[in-house]
## 1
Amino acid sequence: MKFPENIQIPLDKWTDQAMDWVLMSFGGFFDALGSAILKFMLVVEKFFLWVPWPVLIIAVGLLAWRVMGKWWSGLMMAGMLFFMGMLGNWEMAMRTLSLVTSAVIISLAIGIPLGILMASSDMFEKILKPLLDGMQTMPSFVYLIPALMLFGLGKVPALFATIVYAVPPVIRLTNVGIREVSPSVVEAAHAFGSSYWQILFKVQLPLARPTIMVGVNQTTMMALAMVVIASMIGAKGLGFEVLLAINRIEIGRGFEAGLCIVLMAIIIDRITYAMASGKRA
Amino acid sequence: MKKIDIHNLYKIFGPHPEKVMPLLSKGMSKDAIMEKTRHGVGVADVSFDVEEGEILVVMGLSGSGKSTLVRCINRLIEPTSGKVLVNGENVLKLSDTELRHFRQKHFGMVFQNFALFPHRTVLKNVEYGLEVQKVDSAKRSDLSMQALEQVGLKGWEDSYPDQLSGGMQQRVGLARALALDADIMLMDEAFSALDPLIRRDMQDELLELQDKVQKTIVFISHDLDEAIKLGDRIVLMKDGMIVQVGTAEEILTNPANDYVAKFVEDVDMSKVITAETIMKKSETIAYYKTDGPKAALRKMKKASISKIFVSKERKLVGIVKAADAADAAKRGEKTLEHILITDIQRVSPDTPAADLFPLLATSEHPIAVVNDSNNLQGVIIKGLILAALAEGTQSNGNENDKAA
Ligand SMILES: Nc1ncnc2c1ncn2[C@@H]1O[C@H](COP(=O)(O)OP(=O)(O)O)[C@@H](O)[C@H]1O
Ligand SMILES: [Mg+2]
């Protein structure tokens, strides 16, 4: 049976109209935002493409050794990165890494302050929580649509979609981390005449640090996952390689690129996880 | 001088405290108010003051509103109504910024659960209050090291709180409050979480420290023995209200009502009652300069006693026995010089009765109660102590106090 046409609503038209209106009214703003984001991304990308590969491999090895505490962990992480180069995907990996890095930096810059705000206002928490839940249950490629509409094709919408998808964990865990700080310790800080900022920076954030770092870890992993999907709208990198391979049914090429993504995920996860669970800095 | 002066302080927990105030003034009980309005009565119509340099202990059972009361003083809890004057200034009228500066300047606080900063070293914990005040780092660490030394924690400055025992953690808490050099210390059950032996040590140390630093201390406790030991005066609370204010002795010997009487029932009276309470004050004495053996003998006969204390220029010099005085009179001696026994027991007025027993057992003479300048204040004989303890709450032997 056919659904009666006279009770269908033209949501598609409405959406288009709303979008048109947004672009009409704020087009200048999104253009400016887009070019600022692009500038930032290019700086990050330039850096990763500039760093000589042995330097990066050694740096990652040393960092892993330091945060994980075992020399062979460092060696293994460095080895995995080296292997990615051996697969011939170094440049693509660097592009992906720079996209992830930009996305994580911006996510933290937005997410940590929002988390702090959420922790200091029950009202704000009530509003934001269902929003965050919604963001995380939505299929990730849904974010591509508004990103496309606002910024067109290319790196910028890819980054935008990645940020929207990856930012919830760091907001959520910053909030939880701060709220979990023992109220009696905060009370003591108040008793000694601390201001809001002093309590935040001297007591709450340092004590919430391990929890926030778990959020950073999750945000990073989600950013990496999203990067693959984001390549559908034109961000170059490992994800783009996979996409190409699928389109052209080149199984071997797709396998190589996929393996590189897995290795990068392991390296990033191990290192940020160790940072999160590490004791006093 | 009144350091802290609290007038008609109320704290009611809940969304509409103003609706509860009339019920309270109608005399409705805390439980009934909870039942009827879902509002908790933390503190109700509390007024008292704290003298400069005094240790005032606020005592009461759990839930009686002690923590609420002490937090109303520095406004960690915002009172519903009333007045809290500190150095004559109403704390409740301060703006947020003024309140922060007021806390920095006047209040050091020590908590039951220590509430140390787990991510900071011992030294950094103690420095916290000074850091908040933006004291420069050299001075900060100087003052903090001094405070740590005062509480006997020198050498532990680089440890973290979780590496320390409970007693040591609370020493850090104490040092953290001392480092500020605030004039008032608020101590909420500061020693309650410690085991009894360590607790006693900490009490002793606090008293020793107080001799040196002379702070005004509001000390919260649920333990009467602790209150008696530390408190110059005690405020006894029940259901958010004050039931009695006074010195330990006043409360113990003269409980305001059955509640207080029950509270003080198990206290060992011999630790509480002091020499001053039980001594006989209006004892006849002989004067070394003017009285000879005959005069001394006559005074003893008149007071029906067999020994008499002798004073010279208002200072106690010794005791004379009736038999010796009679002999000396027969020998025609004109002064008490040769029969004066100078080897006698002297105690200060605040010696606990418990410490008097062994003295009485070994001494053949009555015990002299003298003040710091050796003026005779009174006399203790065996019967008086026993009578005082037997009567328990009613002290004996000082009926003449007021007259004397
Ligand atoms: N934040 C609060 N909200 C509601 N009721 C409270 C709160 N804090 C304390 N109370 C109530 O106030 C009363 C006094 O508590 P408190 O001051 O902690 O007593 P104490 O320190 O003597 O054990 C108790 O009945 C308690 O339940
Ligand atoms: Mg309490």
## 2
Amino acid sequence: MKDFKYFKPSSLEEASRLLLQYGEAASILNGGTDLIVRMHEGLSHPEAVIDIKGIGGLNEITFDKETGLTIGACVTMKEMEKHPMLLEKYRVLAEACHSVGSCQVRNRATMVGNITNASPLADTATPLLALDAFVQVYASEEGIREISIHDFFVYVRKTCLKAGDIVTGVRIPNYDENVFGHYQKHARRDAVDLSTVCASVVKVGGKIRIALGSVAPTPVRLWQTEAFLEGKSLNPEVIEAAAKIAVGEVNPITDIRATKEYRQEIVGVLVKRGLEEIAK
Amino acid sequence: MKYEINFTINKEMISLAVIPNKTLLEMIREDLDLTGAKEGCGAGECGACTVLVDGKPVNACLMLAVEADGKEIITVEGLATETELDELQQAFIDHAALQCGYCTPGMIMSGKALLMENPTPTVEEVVDAISGNLCRCTGYKKIVEAIMHVSENNANK
Ligand SMILES: Cc1cc2nc3c(=O)[nH]c(=O)nc-3n(C[C@H](O)[C@H](O)[C@H](O)COP(=O)(O)OP(=O)(O)OC[C@H]3O[C@@H](n4cnc5c(N)ncnc54)[C@H](O)[C@@H]3O)c2cc1C
Ligand code: FES
Ligand code: FES
């Protein structure tokens, strides 16, 4: 690991000022499970590392009926996976958190780090896409603004964040009923592996929502498949047809984890399983 | 540049000046001479470096030493008393849950963290808790048995 300057600001203002001062040469440090690995492997060598864990108010999970559920930027996956509100109302997200890495990783890793790192396979991205989440971002001029999760991911490892931006949390709208459906992760082995394909197939407000990861440069929502399902009852023929549309809607690549063709096959299987679960 | 940090390790208060590009694992092993925690992969994959930070198991290879400021750290060296092993350490010996021993400090810290949070875990919970710890020689069966032994003892208390 190369030498760098370490800062632990206690306010968003101070953190943002440091980020702007160092520009491209600055990196935000949250749980460090992506950043420190990259630094260790020589893929990142920031001049300034800005640890945001000293900033107050980023550690909480709050809920109210008007705004929904807000998860602070420094809340760990481990805290999320066992949070009673997530388990009851937004279970698919708790399940996605639990599927990440190991206990040791989840005690440090945050959901905000996961989505900001913007890997196409980020496990917490698909539940957030399915639930129409908002990313809350602080910038020194504007204060806090909200970005729809649908606008957040731009490309592999690229988000729409600008220099100096700090994600302060993620907000998920309140839905009257509990979100129904499960998170599915297909990986080479059961524990501590990255997704070959992952899927959130859920029912919210009487509507089916489908989001997939590791099948395109960013995690994606399957709008066409959802439109096809609108107003239809989930019988075996409809489910079969929806799975076919889903396969046509994604654009996976071949990499070390799987071939393009294998991923396409798995997309069909996961969408089918997810819909069958909801149809039960 | 060096950064002054204060923390406790195995209940001892420590003040130290550390360089920023040093991991918690390197500090523990090289500056504090506590060589229980091991480096296997240096990338969060193997769990050989597992220590408890504020009671929670983390990969010491994925945390910067400077981040230890204000924290309470426990390593495998902090489990036994002067005269007696921790019951989980004893259970590993009794169940022959180690061969080369490289993974053992990490396994024990993951098991210990689970037992501190939940004194009577099930087999499934034990397997989940040690899923981030790789063992290449003993196999996981005896390791799970050793942790379950403590769990069952706790249930009978
Ligand atoms: C062994 C291992 C297994 C893993 N398994 C999985 C897995 O199964 N699934 C998976 O999806 N991921 C996995 N990961 C990747 C990683 O754990 C996650 O992506 C993690 O959630 C990142 O969060 P963090 O808090 O550790 O981020 P950090 O490493 O601290 O940061 C990640 C990136 O986001 C930026 N960032 C962080 N917070 C903010 C913020 N508030 N505002 C702006 N930018 C910010 C950082 O600058 C950095 O570029 C694994 C990693 C390891 C080491
Ligand atoms: S050395 Fe830390 S997880 Fe392998
Ligand atoms: S005892 Fe050798 S790696 Fe586990």
